[in-house]
Amino acid sequence: MGKTIWLRMAFLYYQSPSGLDFSNNMHKEIVKAFQKKDVRSVHRLVEEHIEHAKQQLLLSFGQSSSASDR
Question: For residues 35 and 31, what is the distance between their CA atoms, to the nearest angstrom?
Answer without folding.
Answer: 6
